[in-house]
Amino acid sequence: MAEDNNQAAQGQDQKQLQFSLQRIYVKDISFESPNAPAVFQQPFKPKVSLDLNSTSEQVGEDLYEVVVKVTAQVAHAESGTTSFLVEVEQGGLFRIAGLQGDQLDHTLGAFCPNVLFPYARECIDNLVNRGSFPPLMLAPVNFEAMYAQKKQRQAEGSETTQ
Fold first, then answer.
1. Three-state secondary structure of 38-56
2. Which of 90, 104, 147, 150 is 20 to 30 Å from the Cα of 51, by its Cα?
3. DSSP state of 153
4. d(Cα 80, Cα 22) in Å, to the nearest integer?
5. Is the dihedral of CA 83, 74, 88, 90 positive or negative?
6. What topology does CATH give the domain 16-153?
7. Does residue 113 contact residue 66 with C-beta atoms inside 8 Å?
8. Which position has the higher pLDDT, 107 or 158?
9. What CA–CA distance (Å, rounded) separates 135 from 131?
10. Please, where are the H alpha helices in 14-111?
């Protein structure tokens, strides 16, 4: 009986696992078409370059902001003239308790960006459409793989510095 009470007390001391999405928001948004209207007077032959990253920071007790930043630059494939440049920083506030160390890092670096990316995709597609360009439907992104690559690079970097 005393052993059961001791285990219950230990369980209460440890935070229970909690994960909830508090808010999704656009933190920054930009659309530029520097060569309009000339860009519309030639056949649209796009060459897309995409830059994608995510960041996270603790903003309160058990409260974390995660931001997925997507930048797409589309240029004419032959002339190199910029058709448009679109940038979205999609933010989210997540309440996460009961996770620490690698588990918390993995959640902030892979799981949370997976939640936010569809919103960033839709925002980019909407902006491009409003700019009078054909839809730019970005392919889904595997943030799990990106996180694994980041961890591998960090491990390789620490091995070379030792």
1. HHHHCCCCEEEEEEEEEEE
2. 104
3. H
4. 42
5. positive
6. Bacterial Protein-export protein SecB (3.10.420)
7. yes
8. 107
9. 10
10. 101-106
Q: Are 66 and 112 in contact (CB under 8 A)?
A: yes
Q: Which amino acid is at 63?
A: L
Task: Please name the residue that has the structure tokens 């597609």.
Answer: 125
Q: Is the pLDDT of residue 137 over 70?
A: yes
Give per-residue pLDDT as tens, 10-31: 554 456 899 999 999 999 999 9
- The strand order across the sheet containing 18-32 reads 18-32, 82-97, 63-76, 46-60
Helix (H, G, I), strand (E, B) or coil at 25: strand
Closest CA to 29 of 126, 140, 101, 155: 126
Top pLDDT among 128 and 154 is at 128
Strands 82-97 and 63-76: antiparallel
Helix/strand/coil for 6 = helix
- With beta carbons less than 8 A apart as the criterion, state whether 74 and 133 touch: yes
Give, for 83, the enclosing helix (H) or strand (E): strand 82-97
